């Protein structure tokens, strides 16, 4: 993957990685539990980095809709709940697990699709590239810091959901 610090590209790369992990979680030939662990850490670190480093900075732009940013945060909460529902199923690959996985895929795909069309297009149209790269640096740093704390562990996701 090309090295970039553009926050728009960095967010898109994570979204594509999430889609790859969905494919692995659906495959009986894959280590589905490992794919879920990686997905959970990535999802939580990604969303927290967006909420702390990217969304607040974009709120300062007049032509980027604040309601879209608030809505994005609500969808992060819905994503965390759907993730927790899957993490709480005991048997990986069971019928219940498959069902919760599809609910998670639906919630996350809806969010990433909407985020790309509203928030990221807003950034593309209104934020200069040097600022996009600055935000990308801040996003990466925060994301890396969060990833070290196993943010996708069930206990942590439970804490996020109930806060
Ligand atoms: Fe995102
Ligand atoms: Fe997001």
Automatic annotation (TrEMBL):
InterPro entries: Hemerythrin-like. Residues 7-120 form the Hemerythrin-like domain. This is Hemerythrin domain-containing protein. It comes from Streptomyces koelreuteriae.
